[in-house]
Amino acid sequence: MKSIASIAAELEGYDPQALSASNVNAFLSHLIEPVADDEKVGIFQALGRVLSEDVISPISVPAHDNSAMDGYAFDGAQLSAQAPLKLTVVGTALAGKAWSGVVKPGECVKIMTGAIMPSGLNTVVPQEFVTRQVETTAVATEAATKPEVIVIPAGVLAIGDNRRKLGEDLLAGHPALQKGELLTPAALGLMASLGIERLPVCRKLRVAYFSTGDEILSLGEPPREGAVYDSNRYTVFGLLTRLGCEVIDMGVVRDEPALLEAAFIRAAGEADAIITSGGVSVGEADYTKAMMKKLGDVAFWKIAMRPGRPMAVGRIGQSVLFGLPGNPVAVMVTFLAFVRPALLKMMGSTAASPPLLKARSLETLRKKPGRTEYQRGTVTTAPDGSLRVRTTGNQGSGVLSSMVRANGLIVLHHSQGNVTVGDEVDVMMFDGVI
Ligand code: AMP
Ligand code: MG
Predict the structure, then answer these.
(1) Ligand 1 atom at minimum distance from 211 CA
(2) What's residue 381's pLDDT?
(3) Which residue owns the Cα nearest ligand 1 atom 3?
(4) Closest residue by CA, ligand 1 atom 15
């Protein structure tokens, strides 16, 4: 486990008084280790969890060559680009049952979608492509016993068409999913298609959080002049729950050394990570920073960003500490920009950060080079199909209503300057995250 000082010494351009957003993430990637424990869970419990081992496919999917259409299976070598092909129907292959007759040249088998391809056949003509005839040269006289004959027009089909091949989705013995993958609904379906009921996953991350500040009221307390209701605990609760963490809500901790000490010690004993909000700004006349310093190995930063300049990061005991600023929007922005990727790594996920979208700005945005700015925005689709974005108004770091109205954050990068109408900007979308 590296000390904060040794990580800082290795990081190029490390300046705790003006740390760039990219250096914050670089620092965290050195600090954070994935949790080691894993467990096996049933498929319904696996949604949103991270795989702790590769899953090797026990079978091939599909297990046999089969038909992708309702139609007629035949040997496609008989097709010619110039002449129609006439085939006599000698049987029917239904889904779920193998048809085991012999098919000679000039013959075909009526086949249903998903039915196993009879041996020697490699092509399926969809039923709507053919014309049906009754064989007039047949020996039988009763109409009911006359064999059905189909005619496939020339040039509509190639050999191998409408046949799904054995193992085209997955081959037995090959990894179907890899360690570090997040189990999505599609991944659950894939596992089920292999007959797998239980999955090896990383242990759930336990994250404790509390708010600090004597002016912060818990829900249920009567309003008091100069005091505000705690909103950070609820946004942090939501963000962590969406991420699939086990949450430990420790309430509001008053600005008293004994209370803060007890809270940090309990959190460090129970959780893999601790998230606090408030009390890390410069000139803060409280005990939060002092207690972090006393109990842990912690760096105090001023980040070149807006909103959310102050932040404390380090370890208390075995737990990773994220001391976020107090302002409600700053809490969410620092969580999304730094804490969320760090927690995903702790959860064992190897997924790359989701790509930023490009959208044209519908407004002029004032931006100073030398810091990263995150503006709350609404992305919409223009009539020509391109994306455009507009901010949601007041960008004050305490204004949560403009966060609620936004569907993403416009990311104005460190060295970027003013944006004029029509310029492309990067947007971090919220979908499924907040
Ligand atoms: P601080 O970082 O402690 O200086 O707090 C900055 C601002 O955020 C102050 O206006 C606080 O009242 C406000 N604030 C701090 N914590 C919370 C919280 N848990 N819920 C809502 N507002 C908060
Ligand atoms: Mg405060």
Answers:
(1) 19
(2) 97
(3) 278
(4) 326
Decide if 136 contacts 118 (C-beta within 8 A). Answer: no
Q: How far is CA 362 from CA 139, 367, 368, 410, 425, in A?
A: 78, 15, 19, 12, 10
* pLDDT in the model for residue 141: 53
Query: Which residue ranges in the chain fall short of pLDDT 50?
Result: 140
Cα–Cα nearest to 209, from 234, 227, 187: 234
User: What is the torsional sign of CA 251, 256, 260, 263?
Assistant: negative
Predicted local confidence at residue 432, as pLDDT: 63
CA of 68 to the centre of ligand 1 (A): 60
- With a CB cutoff of 8 Å and minimum separation 6, the contacts of 138 are 146, 147
Which residue do the tokens 């995250």 mark? 433
* Nearest ligand to residue 324 Cα: 1
CA–centroid distance, 309 to ligand 1, in Å, is 13
Ligand 2 centre distance from Cα of residue 90 (Å): 83
Domains of the chain, each with CATH number or no CATH: 4-37+204-346 (3.40.980.10), 40-61+169-202 (3.90.105.10), 66-164 (2.170.190.11), 357-429 (2.40.340.10)
CA dist 79 and 82 (Å) reads 9
Q: Copy the structure tokens of residue 310.
A: 């102050």
Q: Classify burial at 73, counting beta carbons within 10 Å of its beta carbon; exposed 0-12, middle 13-18, buried 19 or more.
A: buried
Amino acid at 37: D
Per-residue confidence (pLDDT) for residue 198, from 0 to 100: 98
One-letter identity of residue 314: G
Atom of ligand 1 nearest to the CA of 212: 16
Nearest protein CA to atom 17 of ligand 1, as residue: 326
